Fold this protein.
Amino acid sequence: MARGKRLKLGDIYEIPLPDGKKAYARLFEEFTLGIYEGRYDSVDELPDDAPYFRFIGVYKPMLGDGEWPIVAHRGFEHADDAWPPPKCIVDAITLKGSLYHKGKIIPCSFEECKGLEVVAGWRRDHVVDMLMGETKWDDSIRKPTH
């Protein structure tokens, strides 16, 4: 991607995997990728109604360096549709959770936060590892470190 080119919500990124297959992800607000379920040989195999596997936040430079090429575009019908689902923030000291959605942090109970994706910035190697079944990165953000 040319330097200075704006990222477009709805762009579809191709994520090459070590086994020769590819995963695909759609760009949502706040540098969140909605990773589609399934592995494919090409974007032509990706169904229009493919469900999402996960919604993860990534570092902005990853989206513009061309290593994960943009191979398609699936725009959003309404601007609100471009927001990913709520995520959970867990305070490392108090272990209390909050909901994070549409740029807002809202205190919540454990039950409201249970099962949600944890807010994190994923690196490229983390994403590929996760897609290949490695759980160490998920484990590191879901378990207290003390």
In short: The first strand starts at residue 11 and ends at 16. The two ends are 41 Å apart (CA to CA). The mean pLDDT is 87. The first helix runs from residue 60 to 64.
